[in-house]
Amino acid sequence: MTRLAAHGHHPVRFHLNGKPVEAEAEPRMLLSDFLRHRIGATGTHVGCEHGVCGACTVIVDGMLTRSCLTLAAQVDGCEVQTVEGLAPSADRLGILQQAFRRNHALQCGFCTAGILMSLDHYLRRNPSPREADIRDLLSGHLCRCTGYTPIIKAALEAAADFASTTEEKSDA
Amino acid sequence: MKPAAFDYVRAESLDEVLEGLSNEGGNARVLAGGQSLMAMLNMRLARPKVLIDIMRLKELNRVEERAGVVTIGAGVRQATLLAWPELTRTLPLLALALPWIGHVQTRSRGTICGSLAHADPSAEMPLALIALGGEVHLRSKRQRRRVPARDFFVGMMATDRAEDELIEAVSFPGHRGGGCAFREVARRHGDFAIVACAAVATPNGVRFAVGGVADVPMARDWPCLDGTALDDALNGFAYELDARDDVHATARYRRDLVRIIGRDLIGEVLQ
User: Fold this and answer.
1) Could you list the residue range(s) of the whole structural domain that residue A40 is in?
2) Considering the domain boundaries, does residue B2 fall inside one?
3) How close B39 gets to chain A, by Cα (Å)?
4) What does the pLDDT look like over B99-115, one tens digit per residue?
5) Across the strands, what pairs with B208?
6) If we measure between CA atoms, which residue out of A137, A125, A113 comes closest to residue A58?
7) Which of A66, A102, B200, B244 is deepest in the core (most CB within 10 A)?
């Protein structure tokens, strides 16, 4: 049994986008705040802080996770993926991010990090999604700019791009 | 919105959980998937002194089918059960109702038993438990006991669980071959239900259960009714639920939904 005292600062260690990170947190610290304030990974945004808006969605051990409904202490020893891990390098966008850019699937960008994580998680497991599946997935995110239509278009385009990239690789 | 301070306990055995609950009583809350509890903590609607995380206990992360009864451990997430290959065969009502719990992004973490512990009157899992006549398995240092669904929910977000008890598992009687149906009306998919209904065929007729209207999900058992007899039964039940007006819907609209959805679902099941 591990017991972390309420007002103490306790080390939390996990892998963030494949790299080990460590910082101290009180037991009550949310993963969203831990990422932003302790690690400095501010790509994950914080909206409603009660699990409704989806802006803070990340992936923990392969599970889509609201980081505002998760304590930093809960993910000790886990693998955490955030939007910072999507681009292949600092000067290049990933396939999904490129599709978002082409289709104007973001305006203010506040909701985008969470939506990208949900779509990345989904498209990796469901390479040929139906539009209805994408709509169902997006029901877990609020976007007040786009009206969702360009996001759906970008997601379907990215799915097609993922598929053709895989085909090219298998031909080679 | 940040939680008030609490001690965090990462339990590594069931004994540690039960010991913790025994020592801390009402000051402790069990943390499983956290999809309801964490929101309550963030809004400070709950201010426990100790949080006992049970998700590292492998023994609670089991789905078992034995003699036609499906038992789901406290660590089983909603997404895990939805992906269980035997779900449609053994518990077709849950296969229909589970996709209505929250969203993909919350079902991935939220647990079946956590939803029962939270006991929101408009939530899908309590409704399904009432409709199927399942049992909640409670365990403390003092005793183990099983509580039938109709005795478990005692009020809005209130259950029969004592402060030192853990919901160790929930069990559902397996599907007996009759039909079942589920329908929910909400402002948007994934929102809390304005009205959610389930109908299940029974040996003598049908059981019809309604969530989102009364303080707890409620069910009625009826013989094979149709025509005016069914309308009268549904109308009587709709009024017994004591619907209230709120920001989402009027009491009258809720009664209408109970009558209309009830007629549809019961027709579907008795076909």
Assistant:
1) 10-84
2) no
3) 5
4) 999 999 999 999 999 99
5) B199, B220
6) A113
7) A66
